[in-house]
């Protein structure tokens, strides 16, 4: 009899605990009522994101979301958007798609966020596309240049931010074609859509057979000596890197150890000089001559009014954290989101936000235009080249614009917009 | 306490019901387990209606992990074999289900019977892998066995990266899963459906495990764990028993991984790293080795801990940099600390502690009565 009682007790206690755990947040809230919009009250808008704050891709990237949050805090301190303060919930997914599943569900189902903003990573974000779609959550300005975000028919609520990796590959290859003609070009890419799309862009410009050696890496293996060794053995003179910052630093460092000195052409996601210099430490001079791309103001260009604004925000609301390209990126995302909210109007709904983004016409820090329309959900449409010289990364030449298909790479000459006087966008 | 029970050495008192003479009044073990499973199943349905979607999803995740931890409990707690590679077995099941579901979707096949078919395929493939590892494991002891299973934990995710044509490297595969059947209504919450599917599969697996434990095989498992020489003298084929235990354990781990993939609708090597294997082992030890209820506590812990650390870091007002570092690493630290504390304070794990408390309560009540 005791045995039975004991088992009963065990089962009962288990169930009781489960139910209390469930009951703790069992309040269904107004979100299920249908009348109100999830995450939106008269005084607050709650948005969330997933970011690699830890793990293999955290170098540099872990600073993006805090920078965005700092910009929101700045806007909140200036009265918010239509009287609402923005609350930004940042969840760490460690760049692990399984964690992304968990944290995004938590944001959407438990925290009832209005939208997911700037979720970072191709493999991580791919896994939540369907979930966000079926819950009709706006999936704005994904922090990755995968072409997957640009599928208006399949994912009407998803919009990119970065120029897509094919556009970037084309612009990098265009530079190689014009300035490094006749040299042996090789390619190292991440073993996912990032690397594949980028390679596709490079081959669109140089030709399908022009890339002599193609290598890939995975973020779980921090040894790129075999790949770099293959480049050296093949006598590569130009190496295009579609790498995250940690692996750009690793590749440059490994090449130096092997006595291999090619011309590096680096994707914008892995070309931020302060991030790389911090990773390499004393070996930072190895970055001399590296050519990278970007489409936002350069973080060391103190004459740029956007950089002045962002530096001020960084001082006041981000604990004066080291200022680099990730800070500029995070704040630019914040600026674009505030613009979107303003354009969506005072009676904020998810549908209105999507309409506002599709209408496009945003002017911000970017050197090239954002391409948002009803049929185009990709982000920025081009890039400008930068070079590290004397330990300083700066732009050279014009900005370029191109498409992800076979279109040519064209110069883009319009001058970027200046920021509003108080740093907060107004309804245009 | 009966005289027979007192004669059994203390360690086996609770987890060795098969060693006692069967009480004819207790009736069929299978029927008893069936009744419990039915009751839990009904309760799960009731709970699924009363809580919000995210809790449903979390409970479904607990159920998926429970499959794996229950299998590991049988292997480590009842058969005495240590496995550091159960995360890899979960990955095997997960990838099988992904490949099957994708194949079905590509051929335009739809229907409610496809998912059970894929889950079955996942179990079969994991059984195959488990049999191979199990045969090796039966020849090895202690640290050598740990070494082999550790190698499995490292190699399987690496395979996904090496053969990226099939497994799509670190980006992994997506797992197309059909929405809940229309007969449940057009607005049936997807998370509730997920809980039903994973809950049903897990309860079935637990039912089979519970019966196995109480059967002749369960007794041979324990006999081999306690003393291999004595077991051999009693006519038990030790190696065969060990392989059987490994295969059973692998099958449930494979099912657990498959369910996890169905829940996440995606599978990637990052989800089945070595850390997961270690977490599984820690979870069953903390939950209480040797009892299936212990496996439940372990599974709950696996899901609750990251959530808990997030709330903790949110509550503390820390500088962003410190908070970031903490959030990523705190679960590991807490897990380790819990393991140490539990081992010192309650060697029987959470379940051991609970049943000790329960017994103390009962004893007090019966003394008061007499």
UniProtKB/TrEMBL annotation, chain A:
SUPFAM superfamilies hit by this protein: Periplasmic binding protein-like I
Signal sequence, start to end: 1-24
UniProt KW Signal keyword: yes
Entry keywords, A to Z: Signal
Domain named Leucine-binding protein: residues: 45-389
Entry keyword Signal: yes
Family named by the database record: Belongs to the leucine-binding protein family.
Protein name, as recorded: ABC-type branched-subunit amino acid transport system substrate-binding protein
TrEMBL record, chain B:
Domain of life of the native organism: Bacteria
Membrane-spanning parts: 30-51, 57-75, 87-105, 117-137, 144-163, 193-213, 243-264, 270-289, 296-312, 332-354
Topology with respect to the bilayer: Multi-pass membrane protein
Region Disordered, residue ranges: 1-24
Keyword annotations of the record: Cell membrane, Membrane, Transmembrane, Transmembrane helix
A Pfam entry, by short name: BPD_transp_2
Record flagged with keyword Transmembrane: yes
Localization, UniProt: Cell membrane
Residue ranges, compositional bias (Basic and acidic residues): 13-24
PANTHER family referenced in this protein's UniProt entry, alphabetically: HIGH-AFFINITY BRANCHED-CHAIN AMINO ACID TRANSPORT SYSTEM PERMEASE (PTHR30482), HIGH-AFFINITY BRANCHED-CHAIN AMINO ACID TRANSPORT SYSTEM PERMEASE PROTEIN LIVM (PTHR30482:SF20)
Protein name as annotated: Branched-chain amino acid transport system permease protein
């Amino acid at each position: 009899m005791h045995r039975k009682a004991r088992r009963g007790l065990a089962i009962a206690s288990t169930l009781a605990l489960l139910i209390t755990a469930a009951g703790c947040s069992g309040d269904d809230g107004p979100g299920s009522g249908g009348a109100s919009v999830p995450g939106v009250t008269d005084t607050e808008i709650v948005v969330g994101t997933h970011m690699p704050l830890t793990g293999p891709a955290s170098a540099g990237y872990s600073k993006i979301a805090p920078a965005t949050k700092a910009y929101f805090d700045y806007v909140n301190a200036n009265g918010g958007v239509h009287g609402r303060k923005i609350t930004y919930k940042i969840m760490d997914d460690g760049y692990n798609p399984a964690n992304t599943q968990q944290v995004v569900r938590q944001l959407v189902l438990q925290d009832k966020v209005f939208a997911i903003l700037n979720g970072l990573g191709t493999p991580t974000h791919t896994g939540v596309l369907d979930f966000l779609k079926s819950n009709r959550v706006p999936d704005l300005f994904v922090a990755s240049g995968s072409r997957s975000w640009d599928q208006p028919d399949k994912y009407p609520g998803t919009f990119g931010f970065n120029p897509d990796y094919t556009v970037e590959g084309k612009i990098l290859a265009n530079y190689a074609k014009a300035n490094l003609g006749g040299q042996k070009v090789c390619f190292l890419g991440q073993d996912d859509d990032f690397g594949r799309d980028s390679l596709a862009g490079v081959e669109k410009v140089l030709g399908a057979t022009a890339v002599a050696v193609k290598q890939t890496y995975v973020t779980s293996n921090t040894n790129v000596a075999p790949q770099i060794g293959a480049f050296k053995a093949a006598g590569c003179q130009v190496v295009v890197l579609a790498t995250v910052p940690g692996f750009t630093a690793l590749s440059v460092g490994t090449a130096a150890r092997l006595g291999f000195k090619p011309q590096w052409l680096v994707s914008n996601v892995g070309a931020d000089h302060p991030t790389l210099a911090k990773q390499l430490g004393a070996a930072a001079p190895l970055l001399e001559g590296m050519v990278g791309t970007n489409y936002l103001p350069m973080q060391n260009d103190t004459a740029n009014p956007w950089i002045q604004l962002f530096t001020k925000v960084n001082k006041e609301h981000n604990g004066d954290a080291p200022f680099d390209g990730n800070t500029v990126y995070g704040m630019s995302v914040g600026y674009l989101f505030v613009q979107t909210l303003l354009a969506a109007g005072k009676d904020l709904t998810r549908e209105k936000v999507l309409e506002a983004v599709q209408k496009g016409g945003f002017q911000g820090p970017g050197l090239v235009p954002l391409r948002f329309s009803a049929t185009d959900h990709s982000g920025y449409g081009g890039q400008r080249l930068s070079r590290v010289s004397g330990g300083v990364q700066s732009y050279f030449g014009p900005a370029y614009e191109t498409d992800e298909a076979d279109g040519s790479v064209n110069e883009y000459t319009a001058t970027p917009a200046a920021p509003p006087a108080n740093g907060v966008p107004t309804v245009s | 306490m009966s005289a027979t029970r007192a004669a059994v050495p203390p360690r086996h008192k609770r987890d060795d019901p098969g060693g006692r003479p069967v009480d004819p009044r207790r009736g069929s073990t299978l029927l008893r387990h069936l009744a419990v499973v039915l009751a839990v199943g009904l309760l799960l349905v009731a709970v699924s209606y009363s809580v919000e979607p995210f809790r449903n999803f979390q409970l479904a995740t607990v159920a998926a992990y429970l499959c794996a931890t229950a299998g590991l409990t049988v292997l480590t707690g009842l058969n005495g074999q240590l496995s550091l590679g159960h995360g890899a077995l979960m990955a095997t099941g997960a990838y099988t289900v992904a490949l099957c579901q994708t194949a079905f979707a590509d051929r335009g096949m739809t229907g409610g019977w496809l998912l059970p078919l894929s889950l079955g395929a996942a179990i079969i493939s994991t059984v195959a892998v488990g049999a191979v590892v199990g045969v090796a494991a039966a020849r090895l002891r202690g640290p050598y066995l740990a070494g082999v299973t550790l190698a499995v934990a490292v190699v399987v995710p690496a395979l996904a990266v090496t053969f990226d044509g099939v497994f799509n490297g670190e980006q992994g595969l997506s797992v197309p899963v059909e929405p809940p059947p229309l007969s449940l209504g057009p607005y049936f919450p997807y998370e509730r459906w997920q809980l039903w599917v994973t809950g049903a599969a897990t309860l079935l697996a637990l039912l089979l495990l519970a019966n196995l434990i109480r059967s002749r095989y369960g007794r041979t498992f324990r006999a081999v764990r306690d003393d291999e020489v004595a077991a051999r003298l009693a006519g038990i084929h030790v190696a065969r028993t060990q392989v059987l235990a490994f295969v059973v354990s692998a099958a449930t781990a494979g099912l657990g991984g498959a369910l996890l993939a169905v829940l996440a609708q995606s599978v990637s090597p990052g989800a089945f790293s070595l850390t997961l294997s270690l977490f599984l082992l820690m979870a069953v030890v903390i939950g209480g080795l040797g009892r299936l209820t212990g496996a439940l506590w372990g599974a709950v812990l696996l899901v609750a801990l990251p959530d808990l650390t997030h709330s903790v870091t949110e509550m503390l007002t820390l500088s962003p940099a410190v908070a970031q570092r903490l959030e990523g690493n705190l679960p590991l630290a807490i897990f380790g600390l819990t393991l140490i504390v539990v081992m010192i304070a309650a060697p029987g794990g959470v379940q051991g502690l609970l049943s000790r408390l329960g017994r103390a309560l009962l004893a007090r009540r019966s003394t008061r009565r007499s």
